[in-house]
Amino acid sequence: MKQIKYISPRTKEEALEVLQQEKDRACIVAGCSNVLPNLKDKKIAPQILVDITTLESLKGIFKKEGKILLGPLTTINELISSKIILEEYPVLTQAAREFADPIVRNTATVGGNLVTASPAADLAVPLLSLDAIVKIESLGDKREVNLINFFTAPGETILNSHELVVGIEFKQSDINKNGCFMKIGQRKAMAISIATLAVNLDWKENTINQIRIAAGSVAPTPLRLTGVEEFLKNKKLNQELIEEAVIKVSKEVNPISDIRASEGYRRYISGILFKRAIERLAN
Amino acid sequence: MEKEQYDFIGQPLEIKNIGKVTGKELYSSDINIPGQLYAVILRSPHAHAEIKKVDYSEAVKVGAVCIGPQDVPEIIYNERIVSIPEKTYRDRTVLPKEKVRHKGEALVACAAETEEKAWAALQKIKIEWGKQWKPLLTLEKALSDDAPPIYDWVYLGEEKLKVKNNIACERNIEVGDVEEGFREADIVIEKTFHTQRVYHMQFETKSAVCVPEADGGITVWTTSQGIHNVRILLGNIFNLPLSKINIKRITLGGSFGSSIQMNSITPICVALALKAKKPVKLVSSREDDFYDHAKYPLKTILKVGVKKDGTFTAAHCRVWVEIGGHNIQAYPYLGCVAGWFASLYKWKNIKYEGTAVYTNKVPTCAMQGYGNPQINFAVESMIDILAEELKMDPINLRLKNYVGKGDEFWGQGPTVRSIIRSCGVEEMLLEGAKLAQWEKRVPHYQKKEVIRKGMGVARGFHTSGTGGPNPGEVIDYSGATIKINEDGSVDVLTALMDLGGGTWDALAKIVAEVLKVPFEKIGIYNGIDTRSTVFDVNTHATRGVYCGGGAVKFVAEKVKEILLNYAATLFKDLPENLVLSCNKELGQAIIYPREIPENYKTIGEIAEYAHTTSWGTLAYTSTLRQKNCPPCFITHFVEVEVNTRTGEVKIPRVVIMGDSGTIINPNLWEGQIIGAFSRGLGFGLLEETDYHPEDGSLRCKGLVTDYKIPTTLEMPKIEDIIVRSAHTYEPTGPFGAKGIGEAALSSVGPAIANAIYNAIGIRFYELPITPEKILKSLQEKEENLRKRRGE
Amino acid sequence: MEEYKIEMKINGERLVATTQADESLLKFLRRNGFFEVKCGCEKGECGTCTVILQGKAVKSCITLALQANNKEVWTIRGMEKFELGRKLQESFVQYGAIQCGFCTPGMILVAKAYLDKNPIPDRKEIKREIAGNLCRCTGYKKIIDAIYAVAEENKKMN
Amino acid sequence: MKKMEIEFILNGKKRKIEVKPNDLLINIIREDLYLTGTKYGCGLGECGVCTVLLNGEPVLSCLTLAITVDGKEITTIEGLAQGDELHPLQKAFLKNGAVQCGFCTPGMILTATALLRENPDATEDEIRNYMRGNLCRCTGYVQIIKAIKECTSIKNKGLTN
Amino acid sequence: MHNTRFLTQEFEYFVPHTLSEALDLLFTYQDKRTKILAGGTDLLVKMKTLGIGVDYLININEISEIKNVELDKGLKIGAAVKLSQLEKMKAVKEEYPALYEGITSMAAIAIRNMATLVGNICNASPAGDTIPPLVVYGAKLRIVSKKGERVIPLEDFISGVGETILKRDELVSQVIIPEPYKDLGSAFCKKGRVKADIAKINLAVGIERDGDICRDCRIVLGSVFSKTLRAYKSEEILRGKVIKDDLIISAAKRAAEEIKPIDDVRSTAEYRNELARVMVEDTLHIAWERAGGKRW
């Protein structure tokens, strides 16, 4: 008979100790929107559930020294209602508004969405385009990883079993202020996306200073389209360039066919999403 | 007498209801609703006291939902609504408002997640008592001028009546001129008789489960003999439309009359559920149950005049019943006592005076027999007394005077009179005497042994239902829906209860007989509630087979008509040219054109065809009022052995003759008679709920330890209980059937008393006849003899 | 299996019971007799099992029972204790927003939690807010109408 | 009150449940395990309605603490039939009209199984004596005794005492 | 009012597997309301109907040392031995017929499957059915505690209704019944309201026969006093005498005078007086015949 235990550590340190001890026997739970269905489907079989929802230090949105630090336990609805995020990092607000449905947003967390590492993780895409850094801690150790390097495969990240995501950080900058998130799903709410795309753009007098493009559901992991980014850098933004970039976007993404859409459609639609996003940002 | 060959009636078919042997049968106390609360009841420690204040706030604090006198509706009702409203006395509310009237009266109820928790909460309730009175426990005390009034006023119908001398109701009847009759008589004898209070000791304690429904309505499972009356009462008390109340018909763990009325715990459970807005389950403890109901006692002063040839000239009967703290319809009880008294023998001139008196004891109600075990004890003892005086054989005196075929009798009291159309009295007395070897009976004065044998006979009867040519004071009709299902099986939907006597099996057989559908294909046992059925008054008054059976037969015949009409279209023939019969090999009812049996179609085929070609269901619903209540007679020949050194009585052998017309269910008919005999034996020799004279508590304390009912060892052996049926046919009954239930007990008591007299020459005027009483009487007799001899 | 004793206030009443580490709040509630919490998908996809936890609508199938420990839970049965709850219930009935009724508890609870926060939303906002609750019978319009009618009433009262 | 875990065999199946020391076996069987065939009659061991078999012997579940059946074997009326095949006593009860309201029937049948195991040739007197603690208010016992008699061993059939 | 549907007492429960464990527990909790659970047929009834309090409950049914009957010059019956176990023993039925009759007169098979002999003794009911026969057979009780043990005659054990001389840390571990005298005749008799009932009167007699002479005898009655009562004066009439019917009649009459019955829910004092006479007379006859004596 399966033996699952439950623990609700009172401090971060306590949580880290448990993780250190239990390693991959442990499963962290917060919003739970993935863990419970996975348990039910026997996709995971942990021996201990570590409920971190009580760790106040991992909650909240903090602004400091030109940076924003998101506690991983920040819920999606908290993101949506954050004024500073809306003003300074609109791409994130837009994505959060598209996230699942209003009820799930009450419990689902930013950190949870990232560590789930779904190719379709809706928040990974805007955070990629915000060039976010993931802060990771383990007992007696800390490290930081750029989100680009965080995902390794569907459902997998570089996170070790004794490590805990303690924050997601991104800079306050012009480029981050000017972002746009696009999503294609089968329906408006609660849809796992067919394709998502986020663009952050810094441009002056029609010239692109810097651009970040991130896409979801179009590759084994959420990814940055660095090829297209390189191509666009320092170019004059016009209709031809956009058309050219659209083709490059379609090429750079690496999607599969699945129940929700075919590979070809995904390539095509990624380009379209990019086009819509960049046009919106340019106007 | 018409007699036909039956396919099912009278066949000893196996009981179909196997849930009772596998433990799967559900009773009210077995119903569990997820999330239900359990209720317990605080009962009054006093027998007669004023309630000043009930404070259950502490109980609420520990999480219980409580109801007290202040929470229950003001509606004053009578829990037994078998009589018409104008003849129904009303004196009670769900919980008593101003005072308690007997010890153990329910006063406050608590519900909580567990019974233990509810019980713990109950202990926190505080009650402030006002004036307290010494309990009135006897007729004499209750009737005395200085007795405190138990009620100041009650209602009769809509009329408010002042209660005088604690008299709950009275009934006086006079036919002819008794004074004149007594003057004509050669011998006039007057004696006083007492029958005691007996506890039903039905095995399932009174229980209820109530689920409040989303629409504000309720669903209730409860111990009840008549679900529609429970619904009507609950609708009235809680001001709910009947369409929002659904009472489930559910098997009862015995009842014997104690659930003709809505049980007192039922509305308590409902009130709790409505307050808690959660399902509530209330199962009485045995002690609760002891304090809930008992059999009506009776005191009788009977005066009879007789001529030397054994012809009766007059009878004057005065009866008193102390009914306890509530009046569960003693008025019809007094009427029935009059009826039983008046209709057993041709007294010629009759005077009857009946009085029901409130006392501070457990409320009394019907218990197998509605006055006949009580009054028959007086009448049948008196017949033996008269026979001895006349030097006549008791059987001959009975044969000379009994009310029989062609005579008018009072069914359920003086208002329901009709003519007897079937009567096995003579056969029963003569045949029974043969089986009992009556001719070997010797008078008591010839007996000198330590263990003396004796034999006694007694008669009784009960009506089959309460119907009469004209609707009377008692509501009596039954109803059913019968439908032929899409495969030719049949559903019978009726609210009529089966108290264990096999009523449902009997009804199924009647339907089987009419529709020629095999017994096994009749569905009748479960899935019934008030919502799915038309009204049925109650399974009481020995009416199940005669009235309920009459109604299903009536409805089944209508269905048969529909079936034949439809079949006629298939056969392209006229319905009157078709024959319906049972083909046992096929296990099906079949229909064929007269003279051409090979062209048959099974009704399964017909029903299926009707279904697939959209003809609709072959079904019918209706109610039926029987316009008679024919007497089912009973005669007991009881042998006793009295140990003159210890006063112990043993019953080695008994012959029981029953007259139920056609017997539908031989096995269970016999079972009812033998079962009734065991309860009669308890009534005659063993059982009594007596009271502590000071505080009005039960002396047995509500413990089965100290309330003894007969065990296997008290009953005669298998071959020493001889049960026979008279050969009669009741023309107004379904297939000639009458009832048996209550008749079966009505003459056990006097037969035992007469047998004991025959054994030791001592006449007992009071039941139960315990060894203590016998030994004492024997000693007194001895003493008197010695005195007479001048010793 | 290890058992955990938890305590919560459900519809204003305290409940103490045991649960297991991986038991969802949905299962826990139903096991303890709260059958009004319906089970639709057990994956957080349909919203049928919505309850209000600490003032917020959550899907009880993707919430651990243990996560509701020492918290306040409201189910549809508790709604009659609130004026808003009663209004919503009445409005749903009045507007024919109920057909089979299986999604109704979740719908009303979501609406209640939302109207508490935003008493006067427009139809669009309502539509967005109930987007996580699926309904197969009604086509949503009457549900939105019903909620909107309550919002309108709120508006009038303000 | 602290609950304690007990393990016992109920109708052939191993059951592990938690009980409070003061829980009565009858209530655990009826309320926790939903086997409502075992009935409450008096609560004092006077009527036999709550009879169950403990290691094959009839005992009264209203006077038995559930905690004391740890490691033992309990049979209730629900455990008597072999699948759909009724126990011979169950059949005989139905056939002989030994069942009326049915409330005493489970206890009667269980006690009778123990009697027949102990004494397959029981005479009527022996049956009556053995069954004396199982009260019945409906039938007057005769048909019950008849039904049990019918289940005694073949060599005893047809013989009276 | 009480409730027989469940127990309201909350207590801690122990199942010792050895006697010394049990005695340790009794010692530790002697100042608390500590009860021994053997059959439970009296204890649970009292808990339900009288509401007696229990803080600690010690179930002694798993102690193997007290689960046997030793057959060695008499009987040694352990405290956890069930009554039904005894009634099935040939030795009990043949050598101690009054005990056998007393046991089988009790309640019903289900109760006897649960109840123990020691339990019936310790319950100390004036109506206890095994006590008169055991007194007749001169039974002794082994009483043990952490501090040691003592053996006392059963006759000295019961002090009143429901009361015994047992100390709070003590346990009756065994009933010791000596080997009967070779020509002992003994018999038990009981009358109730129904055949299986708590007695209106129960009694046992034993007569040791020496030729035609009653060498010694015991007449012990229950339900006629606050505890089981020995009719010494009646015994005196028989002791050392040649047994004849009239002697038995006068002994029975004397016995009826010795008892002090009361009126209660089961019977009346008056009836009991008369009944006692008849019962003693009949039972003496049976015992005398069983002793091999002739009737004259």
Word description of this protein:
The complex is a heteropentamer of chains A (283), B (791), C (158), D (161) and E (296). In chain B, strands 3-6-1-15-12-13-14 form a 7-stranded mixed beta sheet. In chain B, strand 25, helix 13 and strand 26 (522-523) form a beta-alpha-beta unit. Chain B is globular. In chain B, helix 9 runs parallel beside helix 10 (372-390). Helices cover 27% and strands 25% of the residues of chain B. Among the domains of chain B are: 399-463 and 628-787, Aldehyde Oxidoreductase, domain 4 (2-Layer Sandwich), CATH 3.30.365.10; 477-624, Aldehyde oxidase/xanthine dehydrogenase, molybdopterin binding domain (Aldehyde Oxidoreductase, domain 4). Chain B is α+β, with helices and mostly antiparallel strands and 791 residues long. Chain C contains 5 helices and 5 strands. Chain C has a 5-stranded mixed beta sheet with strand order 2-1-5-3-4, with helices on one face. With 158 residues, chain C is an alpha+beta fold. Chain C folds into 2 domains: 4-77, Ubiquitin-like (UB roll); 79-157, DNA polymerase, domain 1, CATH 1.10.150. Chain D is built from 5 helices and 5 strands, in the order E-E-H-E-E-E-H-H-H-H. Chain D has helices spanning 25-32, 88-95, 105-118, 124-130, 142-150; strands spanning 4-10, 13-19, 51-54, 57-60, 73-75. Chain D has a 5-stranded mixed beta sheet, covered by helices on one side. The longest helix of chain D has 14 residues, at 105-118. Chain D is globular, with a radius of gyration of 16 Å. By secondary structure, chain E is of the alpha+beta class. Chain E has 3 domains: 12-59, Uridine Diphospho-n-acetylenolpyruvylglucosamine Reductase, domain 2; 64-178, Uridine Diphospho-n-acetylenolpyruvylglucosamine Reductase, domain 3, CATH 3.30.465; 184-290, CO dehydrogenase flavoprotein, C-terminal domain (Enolase-like, domain 1, 2-Layer Sandwich), CATH 3.30.390. In chain E, 33% of the residues lie in helices and 25% in strands. In chain E, the strands form 4 sheets. Chain E has a 5-stranded antiparallel beta sheet. Chain E has a 4-stranded antiparallel beta sheet with strand order 11-12-13-14. In chain E, helix 9 (232-238) packs antiparallel against helix 10 (245-258). Chains B and D meet through helix 1 and helix 16 of B and helix 2, helix 3, helix 4 and helix 5 of D.
